[in-house]
Amino acid sequence: MPRDYLIFDLDGTISDPKVGMARSINFALECHDFEGKDEDEIGKLIGLSLDQMYAQLIGATEPSLVASLVARYRERYAEIGYAENTLYEGMETSLRFLHSQTASHIGICTSKPADIAQKILQMFDLDQLFEFVSGGGIGIEKHQQLEQLLHDGTISRNSLMIGDRFVDIRAARRNQLRSAAVLWGYGSRTELESEQPSYLLERPSQIKELVG
User: Fold this and answer.
1) What would the pLDDT profile of 69-86 be if each residue is shown by its tens digit?
2) How many CA atoms lie within 13 A of 146 on its CB side?
3) Where are the domains of the chain?
4) CATH class for the region spanning 6-16+85-210
5) CA distance 5 to 52
6) What whole-number distance in Å separates Cα of residue 85 and Cα of residue 122?
7) How far apart are CA 57 and CA 161, in angstroms?
8) Candidates 1.10.150.80, 1.20.120.450, 1.10.150.240, 1.10.287.1700; correct CATH number of 18-84?
9) pTM of the full predicted structure?
């Protein structure tokens, strides 16, 4: 039987990835003789997939170039960049509270590959709290990941997607799921309110209020 899940995005929702992502993106750019980009410029794109980020940063759409950029990015990120994540204050307490509730089930739906997401969760000693990790890849949209979780009977239609960018809220809506937008990540209040999420959260402690 599918369960009702609280499904978390990772980047910008559970942890702040900007330093590691920006340095890894610039590493890949410089390996291909492009100039590095400002960390804040990169930060505005966090939440998009890597191919979309490179398309916006340098107009890269040629499949072989994109594949090469992503490969060099992942080379650095898998070795160093993932460890440059920082956990948002209050997040661990809220996640452990959810895990302690017998009626509460939590999972991850991220654009990152699942193995990298697991490394980040393990670094924070949070991996045991989540019952599944759905990872993405180039050409895979978040709404397709949620669709697959529904198709596989992992999650129910009563599940709720929690994320910091419009892609998270739209993905939930396309699958007739409820959503909670968080304001401590990389999406602005204007961006998120325009997507009409079911809930709008201003701090990690409010996650506890989603159960009960």
Assistant:
1) 999 999 999 999 999 999
2) 29
3) 6-16+85-210, 18-84
4) alpha beta
5) 28
6) 12
7) 28
8) 1.10.150.240
9) 0.93
Question: Which helix H or strand E contains 153, and what residues bound it?
Answer: none
| Termini Cα distance of the chain | 21
Residues 6 or more apart from 64 whose CB is under 8 A from it? none
Are 166 and 187 in contact by the 8 Å Cβ rule? The answer is: yes
Collapsing DSSP states into helix, strand and coil, what is residue 105?
coil
CA distance 17 to 168: 17
Q: What is the pLDDT of residues 76-122, one digit of tens each?
A: 999 999 999 999 999 999 999 999 998 889 999 999 999 999 999 99
Residue type, 70: V
| Tokens at 40, concatenated | 């804040």
